[in-house]
Design a protein that fits this description.
alpha/beta, 3 domains, 17 helices, Endonuclease, Chain A, 483 residues, 44% helix, two-stranded parallel ribbon, globular, single chain
């Protein structure tokens, strides 16, 4: 067969431009401008590779099937967890005006209402927190839910597995969820699954890779939540994973975490999130879920609200809450997070707070466990420092993996969510927002300890970094937008 080379070249040229024009219309739809620009540049410069990457990891949302499941879950939550009309009964008018817009936003995003009559206790010691979880497993009478991004079988968690076996033996129903990718890389993964089977634990992996088109999700959409519920009376949420604090690393880095123990109506919200994720993975509605409790309106307690987020939701729930809280701040903001890679809106909110006179403190870690993220977040330091943000780096070998925020002296956020584009768009997270001065005071104690083991970055010194480091930071910042 004979081909006219000029005709073939013209045809390829026309098809190439048609493809580029189609991409210009398709890629920006439902995608933030920075991400759309990054993808378009990649495809225009490296057409073949760029298109393959885009079709594999270009969608920031879970499959249509999984999003439909989330809508059903939200509908069930809306019917079973009633709004607490009396939750604002004990707050002043000034505090009411401050809290209500944020609580309303969170409710509209998640269908989870503000609840009163709760109690929150902060846990900062890694090993003691694991011991506390073991104690609750040993004391559980009928139901245990454990949902952790990483669940590993090692020396630190052995006592937990022994306790779980004892719980099943005495008739407790035990349900365990762990992320399919997050847990797989750790040793004893197969042995752990077999042991759970042998014990009689009900378990599933979260977001396993499925190639069927109707169920396909890009592999880096993960479930990063860390939730434990015992007998619907006590719950835990935070940054802790079920693994030794060294995470099987070969270097000297070890992790520090912060977890909050919950009592009161907020516990049912934690159970609802677990039950929803279990339904999403199995199609099964968990048995023996009790009716949602009414808030303890006769007791002040703590006003609290759970904020689940992730690619199954139409909006970036955690990002919207974070930004609203930053704009609500009047005196002081303290952000403790290992991965701070803000989008344009969050960056603007932080800078605006500093510029209007709010004291803004950011606590990161000197140690790096994710090379690209570490350099990406460092690319923002000069801009933040110039705006008046105070940045502290916790000294190595500790990697401060805790994730919490305090706003002034009366609002606290604790949970699993990082403050980067991945946790806003691609990762299923969960945080609790507490409107309580006591909780903020407890967190302030943890912040003070962290600051005592940190060193402050000075703008002048930071500007003198080597050219190589600045280049790596800039490149990492560009790749962070490619979501």
């Amino acid at each position: 067969m004979h081909f006219d080379l000029p005709f073939l070249a013209i045809t390829i040229f026309i098809l190439d431009w048609i493809l580029r024009i189609v991409c210009l219309f398709y890629i920006p739809r439902g995608r933030r401008p920075s991400s759309a620009t990054a993808w378009l540049l990649t495809i225009f410069i490296f057409p073949t590779v760029g298109l393959i990457l885009f079709f594999l990891i270009g969608s920031p949302k879970l499959s249509k099937r999984r999003r439909a499941i989330q809508r059903r879950i939200d509908g069930i939550i809306a019917k079973t967890i009633p709004s607490d009309e009396a939750s604002m009964k004990h707050v002043s008018e000034k505090q009411h005006n401050r809290i209500l817009p944020i609580a309303t936003l969170a409710h509209n995003l998640t269908n989870l209402p503000l609840s009163s009559g709760n109690d929150l206790q902060i846990h900062t010691d890694y090993d003691k927190t694991l011991e506390t979880l073991v104690t609750h497993v040993e004391q559980a009478k009928h139901t245990i839910y454990l949902q952790f991004y990483i669940t590993a079988l090692d020396d630190a968690t052995e006592s937990l597995f022994v306790a779980l076996e004892g719980a099943v033996t005495r008739g407790v129903s035990v349900y365990v969820l762990f992320d399919a990718i997050g847990s797989r890389k750790y040793k004893n993964f197969r042995a752990m699954k077999k042991r759970l089977d042998d014990m009689g634990v009900h378990w599933r992996t979260m977001l396993p890779v499925r190639l069927r088109p109707s169920q396909y999700n890009r592999p880096d959409l993960r479930n990063h939540r860390k939730i434990a519920v015992f007998d619907f009376k006590t719950a835990f949420i935070g940054s802790l994973n079920l693994i030794d604090k060294h995470y099987e690393r070969k270097d000297t880095i070890y992790y520090e975490e912060l977890t909050v123990e919950l009592h009161g109506p907020i516990v049912y919200q934690c159970a609802a999130i677990f039950a929803g994720d279990w339904y999403g993975e199995t199609g099964q509605i968990l048995p023996n879920l009790p009716p949602a409790p009414q808030s303890h309106t006769t007791s002040r307690g703590t006003l609290a609200q759970l904020i689940p987020s992730g690619p199954s939701y139409p909006h970036e729930n955690n990002l919207h809450i974070f930004i609203s809280l930053l704009y609500a701040a009047r005196k002081k903001i303290v952000i403790t997070n290992p991965y701070f890679v803000p989008d344009e809106a969050l960056l603007a909110a932080v800078i605006a707070a500093a510029k209007r006179g709010v004291e803004v403190i950011l606590i990161n870690s000197e140690a790096k466990d994710q090379w690209m993220v570490a350099h990406a977040q460092r690319s923002y330091y000069e801009e933040l420092l110039s705006a008046g943000v105070k940045i502290y780096l916790h000294k190595a070998p500790v990697l401060l993996h805790s994730k919490h925020i305090t706003i002034d002296d009366d609002i606290a956020v604790i949970g699993s969510s990082n403050m980067d584009i991945r946790s806003f768009q691609l990762i299923m997270e969960c945080v609790v927002v507490a409107y309580d001065k006591r909780v903020v005071r407890d967190l302030a104690k943890a912040q003070a300890i962290n600051l005592a083991h940190s060193h402050k970055i000075q703008l002048g010194t930071w500007k003198k970094r080597g050219v190589t480091k600045q280049l790596l930071d800039a490149v990492a910042r560009l790749t962070a937008a490619l979501q």
